[in-house]
Design goal:
Elements lengths: L1 H25 L8 E6 L5 E6 L4 H14 L3 E8 L4 E7 L5 H14 L3 E5 L1
Keywords: Signal
Length: 119
């Protein structure tokens, strides 16, 4: 009986841990001074690159320029303030999803951004 309770508690702790990690990575983590580059994939899911290190607008521009230079992704400014910018990018029909994800991951990492996903 005691062994069964230990397994139940362990399973519950594991489920809570997995759920909390899933919530933490499900949406972009931004502050009012953060900028974000969102990439919409062909399947409708979205990848986000949250850029919190100043100058965030410049970092967002540099990340999106790398995406556009690939020829398979288009980007446009969604919103912009004095301190931050939100860019919306879309994968073209002829560009592989794996390549689009890799490219955003590389561009985001080069600008010290944090990657997240949403559906």
């Amino acid at each position: 009986m005691l062994l069964r309770m230990k397994h139940s508690v362990s399973a519950l702790v594991l489920m809570i841990l997995v759920a909390s990690i899933g919530v933490a990575t499900a949406a972009p983590t931004t502050t009012s001074d953060s900028s974000i580059v969102t990439l919409k994939l062909l399947d409708g899911s979205k990848m986000h690159c949250a850029l919190a290190n100043a100058p965030t607008k410049d970092r967002a521009d540099m990340a999106s320029q790398k995406l556009v230079a690939s020829g398979g992704i288009s980007c446009k400014t969604k919103t912009e303030t004095d301190t931050n910018k939100s860019l919306h990018c879309e994968q073209s029909q002829l560009f592989k999803t794996q390549d689009a994800i890799r490219l955003l991951n590389d561009a985001c990492g080069a600008q010290s951004g944090a990657m997240t996903t949403s559906t």
